[in-house]
Write a structure and sequence with these properties.
The structure is a homodimer. By secondary structure, chain A is α/β, with parallel strands linked by helices. Chain A has two domains: about 180 residues, FAD/NAD(P)-binding domain (3-Layer(bba) Sandwich); about 110 residues, FAD/NAD(P)-binding domain. Chain A has seven helices and 17 strands. In chain A, strands 1, 2, 3, 4, 5, 6 and 17 form a seven-stranded mixed beta sheet that branches. A five-stranded parallel beta sheet of chain A has the order 8-15-9-10-11. In chain A, helix 1 links the parallel strand 1 and strand 2. In chain A, helix 5 runs parallel beside helix 6. The first copy, chain A, is elongated. The two termini of chain A are about 35 Å apart.
Chain lengths: ~325, ~325
């Protein structure tokens, strides 16, 4: 964890998880953590529930586009932001929330540990779930050559041959990282050229380890006990030790759909410009919302978290007659 | 300036100010600087025009609510973000833009130095002009007890005595927030009673920490190195550690009004969720827009800058057939 000097005296004392919370934040990515900073600063009794310290950005070894850091690892950035939320009294609880129920004016959150938590307001910041190729043997070979996280697994492919499926920023970041370890990185993408940030594409195109397989899809995964290669739908075969699948992600609606939270066709939570959902006292922030023109970047998720917490604070003052 | 290690090799070579720019960003606050990071990373030839390195936040000695830094000065933060923009090739030009004209498909920017600049697209990020009291020493004591942002600076006045000048919702919100920290909050307002939302006024009137000084204006700021108090025009004197001036702020529309950029009643630039104005190839970001529910915070301005640059990049690809 990056050490940060605390010039401002001790943190505000955090709430206990079993008292009635003013605010429960579900998700420990940049949106949730920033909501935690703001909610804590507004002196709302806040708990943030997350299974990992950090969200999608934990996969990024080098974050370069978050304003304030020319380069920082996703891990370090998230540690800093979560620490900042804790500094303002937000309690970070290592718990997966599996269900939310409304009882009168209180929401009951069911944790995977069996515990329940009561809260007046909720910010959903659970992010997105990674998409799979949908091929036979994909689940079986997952963790045996097939991976969805280059940051997590890239290190195991030192001097090996790997493939990356996808053309997005995430795919580019994975390919860049893998090229540090692997002897060869094949990029496999269905379109004519990667659609990632041009700057990243120039880096990849200048990298002698990287070879592009455009206009191609993975048709078949080879290998039984572990991945041995792939067959593409243009007939080519590649011998691979690892395949990193970076074809996007989608919101998981299981948690909040039962509450009647409105989503768009693709499952993204509809929010207004104050990050309010259609259900009073439920807000959403980060990658799973329709906000910010759907633009998914760290700084945007952070802003949405700040806005959600501010809307909740105003609601607490005005509607819940909270005297803080 | 905070030194930042550059792990990624030399910066992209910046454009020359006299060539046709892909992007001109007007304003060097957090919104403009973040737009500069993104625009540079998109390989758009970008110049950022500003008279100061940093915007409104330069007034804040201790920024605590920007995610990633438990505490950082506005000056250091802005240096870091502007440096990051320069790292990606954005040219920072020390120049006040005094006029914008459209000639065919190009915008001509007139600088106060007499120079002109040509650009395909523009992001307006000129922020707001804070209304000041107009008193001697007001500028000198700014950041030394005199503040224009309770959300930014209120936390530093734990157990201190503060004043709030103004009667608006913003003044009420500031007073409410300050009462959490301070031992005493004097509201100083020129009329008979605050004109904020009545509910907020009831909260303030029930708050034993809050004392109202109505029908009064600040006549004099006391203190040399830091604020020590104020003298009111009714003859009363108040000993204060901090004075929060909340008499409003407003966008300056002189620059873009002649182009037909649509604004709301109060002069804020109307934007969609992609930060586009009604004029193609003109975007706006930061405090002067109607975006993000009007919530004015660093991280929100940064996000708006990122979104504006992204919209411009997509426009360049699609409409200007830019091949980058």
């Amino acid at each position: 964890m990056a050490e940060q000097e605390n010039k401002k005296g001790p943190a505000i004392h955090p709430p206990k998880a079993d008292e009635l919370l003013d605010m429960a934040i579900i998700g420990g990515g940049i949106a949730g953590a920033t909501a935690g900073i703001y909610s804590g600063r507004y002196l709302l009794k806040t708990a943030l529930f997350t299974k990992t310290k950090g969200g999608a950005i934990l996969d990024s070894p080098d974050v370069e586009n978050y304003p304030g850091f020319i380069t920082i690892s996703g891990y370090d950035l998230m540690n800093r932001v979560l620490e900042q939320a804790q500094h303002y009294g937000t309690l970070v609880v290592n718990e997966i929330i599996e269900g939310i129920e409304k009882q009168d004016d209180v929401f009951i959150l069911k944790g995977s540990s069996g515990k329940s938590y009561k809260t007046k307001q909720v910010i959903i910041a659970t992010g997105l779930i990674r998409r799979k190729l949908g091929l036979p043997k994909e689940d079986k070979l997952s963790g045996k050559g097939v991976s969805y996280c280059a940051t997590c697994d890239g290190f195991f492919y030192k001097d090996k041959v790997v493939g990356v499926v996808g053309g997005s920023d995430a795919a580019a970041l994975s390919a860049m990282l893998l090229s540090k370890y692997a002897s060869k990185v094949y990029v496999i993408y269905r379109r004519e050229r990667m659609r990632c940030e041009p700057y990243w594409l120039t880096i990849l195109e200048d990298d002698p380890k990287v070879e592009f397989n455009y206009n191609a899809n993975v048709a078949e995964l080879k290998g039984e006990e572990k991945l041995e290669g792939v067959k593409l739908d243009n007939g080519n075969e590649l011998k691979l030790d690892g395949l990193f699948i970076e074809i996007g992600s989608e919101p998981s609606t299981d948690l909040f759909a039962p509450l009647g939270v409105e989503v768009d066709k693709r499952g993204y939570v509809k929010v207004d410009d104050g990050m309010k959902t259609n259900i009073p006292r439920i807000y959403a922030a980060g990658d799973l919302t329709t906000g910010s023109a759907g633009f998914k970047q760290l700084v945007v998720g952070a802003a949405e978290g700040a806005i959600a917490a501010t809307s909740a604070y105003h609601y607490a003052k005005k509607e819940l007659k909270d005297t803080r």
